[in-house]
Amino acid sequence: MSIEKNTRPLEDGIVRDFSTRMSYGSYLQLPVLLSAQQPVSQPEHHDELLFIIQHQTTELWLKLVLHELRSAAAWLRSDDLGAALKAIARVKHIQKTLTEQWSVLATLTPTEYSEFRGFLGNSSGFQSAQYRAVEFALGNKNAKMIPVFDAEPESKAMLEELLHAPSIYDEFLAYLHRQGFEVPASVLERDVTQAHEFSEELLPLFKHIYENAQDNWGAYEACEELVDLEDNFQLWRFRHLRTVQRTIGMKTGTGGSSGVSFLQKALELTFFPELFAVRTEIGR
């Protein structure tokens, strides 16, 4: 079939009247969503819209990541490993999108950013409650972060809830215990408000799972999925650091941090240290 005059005709069945029907725009609340980009620079700088959209889309993806991680934790509690791994698989795809997204912001040159950076005041990605919530959900908890959100009661309540809830790693270890694996009591009874720290007692458990993968396929697959999660998160952190470095160099952050050197320290944080440490032990 050929298209005349390079114009595709509308099929008769396509709905055109939305005076009494839900439309694409109304379902997605597009008038609200697309009116949320409000540059503050005076006069308005061309590149500020990029900066705003980059961070707003990140927050939307983080909202979905939290939704999936909460669901994965709930499915682990109910011993539905398959459903939990499906949610984690979706998070992994979101992580890849978030990491690739830095390449768009990296088109913002130091000169362009400097022309509106001063208008941002002390606003900073450090103040992203959802990013902090994802860290908490994965097990990297830090109660000292919570006072940053004293002026945002809903955000503070969300973080307080996640601080006191088991992380997805805690839930996975509890799941393994219920399945008959030997999980140390010290790990099962740990204070979940603290960041998970490396426990040498867990190495025999994971060594057994990895060296007997065929007999423990579900647990083995779950371990590798969690390793993927951490790898992806670290790639995101690194890409963030490099984007900041190429945009502001070694300047201090708008939120008062030391900037690049502060971000560098985040690369030393870990979620599932035993799943990496066990690789040294396998086959010994």
Explained architecture:
This protein is an all-alpha fold and 284 residues long. The chain is built from 13 helices and no strands. It is globular and about 65 Å long. It starts with 23 loop residues before the first helix and ends with a helix. The mean pLDDT is 95.
Summarize the structure.
With 284 residues, the protein is an all-alpha fold.
Q: What topology does this entry show?
A:
Layout: H1 24-27, H2 30-33, H3 48-77, H4 81-105, H5 110-117, H6 129-138, H7 153-164, H8 168-178, H9 185-188, H10 203-211, H11 217-248, H12 260-266, H13 273-281
Summary tags:
284 residues; mainly alpha; 13 helices; 58% helix
Number of strands: 0
Mean pLDDT: 95
Number of helices: 13
Computed structural class = mainly alpha
Instruction: List the helices and strands in order.
Output: HHHHHHHHHHHHH
Shape: globular
Portion in strands: under 5%
Largest sheet: none
User: Helicity, in percent?
Assistant: 55-70%
Oligomer: single chain
